[in-house]
Design brief:
Layout (H helix, E strand, L loop, with lengths): L9 H9 L3 H10 L17 E3 L2 E3 L1 H12 L12 H22 L7 H13 L5 H11 L3 H22 L7 H10 L5 E2 L2 E10 L6 H19 L4 H8 L10 E6 L5 H9 L5 E7 L2 E11 L2 E2 L2 H31 L2 E3 L3
Antiparallel strand pairs: 1-2, 1-9, 3-8, 4-5, 4-7, 6-7
Helix pairs in contact: 1-3, 4-7, 4-12, 5-7, 8-12
Length: 337
């Protein structure tokens, strides 16, 4: 079971998680405006900080800023918050350096292979090597930068897997207690399974259009009452994509369908066929197939997921505790003002 947590600097987060294709980069640039820039940003001090004597170069922070400026998050930054962004990214870098220092002495098996595999996986998101390089360039980093950032990430993840995760245990009693104390989380709400036939109506439909559609749906209803096959009529007449499945919509709960449709379906009994139901989409005939009452999900069905969730929480808390302790003991000098 892997409990990987991305803790390296913001450049890696941007470079690895945001990069998909050169086209995606271009689209992102057009769709998301960069954060409002100050009239003339002051030059960054170099280094911008030191963590236990290890310098964080201004160039690294600048790369992080470049990557951030091309992310969707950049569009959410209010004007005049450039300093706050700089400080936020620097704090992430300081945290990444601290975690790296904690983790770097834990042996890593097949480190070079892990790095090469990660780069290879990233390259598969691009059609060509040139597009991959263009993507890196637009993020403000080189392939060498990327490999170094991945190397550090591999070391951190390895430490988490080898040192932190094994110390976090979850007892059967904890799992059972969580299940008992959170009944709403493990309750399956009432659901129905229904099929329908839809005669669609455009939002601009005239009275004549509505009359024609109403006449058609009423004709289909008569056929159903006379014994015609519902699924066959749905396949031949319904304007819903579900027509390919004979109108079958599968199971759904309350709040998933428009109100008139939902109210009708949940008031029916299995095997019932409704009258004509009007919604914003047009006219429907609904056939109820099955109804499932609200029920508690059995403990055995969810205990593995609960245990996994509780362990992840403990791992996260352990990492935060280690980071806080490392921060208290560290000598951190910040030169960015």
């Amino acid at each position: 079971m892997m409990f990987k947590r991305r803790l390296t600097i913001a450049v890696l987060v941007a470079a690895v998680s945001m990069m998909g294709s050169a086209g995606a980069f271009a689209a992102e640039k057009k769709a998301a405006p960069a954060p409002a820039a100050a009239e003339k940003p002051k030059p960054l001090p170099d280094p911008v900080a030191r963590v236990n004597g290890v310098a964080i170069p201004a160039a690294d922070l600048q790369k992080a800023l470049t990557a951030f400026s091309k992310s969707p998050s950049a569009a959410q930054v209010p004007p005049g918050q450039e300093k706050a962004v700089q400080q936020f990214l620097l704090n992430q870098m300081i945290g990444g350096e601290l975690m790296y220092q904690v983790a770097k002495n834990t042996p890593v098996k097949d480190q070079d292979k892990q790095i090469s595999d990660a780069v290879a996986r990233l390259k598969t998101r691009f059609k060509t090597e040139d597009e991959f390089k263009k993507g890196l360039q637009e993020q403000g980093i080189t392939e060498k930068d990327l490999r170094e950032l991945i190397r550090r990430n591999v070391i951190i993840e390895n430490h988490i897997e080898q040192v932190i995760v094994p110390k976090q245990t979850v007892s059967d009693a904890e799992v059972k207690e969580f299940y008992t104390k959170n009944p709403e989380t493990f309750t399956q709400p009432e659901q129905v399974r229904a099929s329908h036939i839809l005669i669609t109506l455009d939002a601009k439909a005239t009275d004549a259009d509505k009359a024609k559609a109403k006449e058609k749906i009423e004709g289909l209803l008569k056929q159903i009452k006379a014994g015609a096959d519902f699924a066959k009529l749905a396949q031949e007449n319904s304007g819903c994509p579900s027509s390919k499945q004979g109108g079958d919509l599968g199971y759904f709960g309350k709040g998933q369908m428009v109100k008139p449709f939902e109210e009708t379906a949940f008031a029916m009994k299995p095997g019932d066929v409704s009258g004509v139901v009007e919604t914003q989409f047009g006219y429907h005939i609904i056939k109820l197939t099955e109804k499932k009452a609200s029920a508690k999900i059995p403990f055995d069905d969810v205990k593995a997921k609960i245990a996994d969730s509780l362990k992840r929480k403990k791992v996260s808390e352990a990492i935060n505790s280690i980071m806080e302790d490392a921060k208290k003991k560290a000598k951190i000098e910040v030169y960015l003002k």
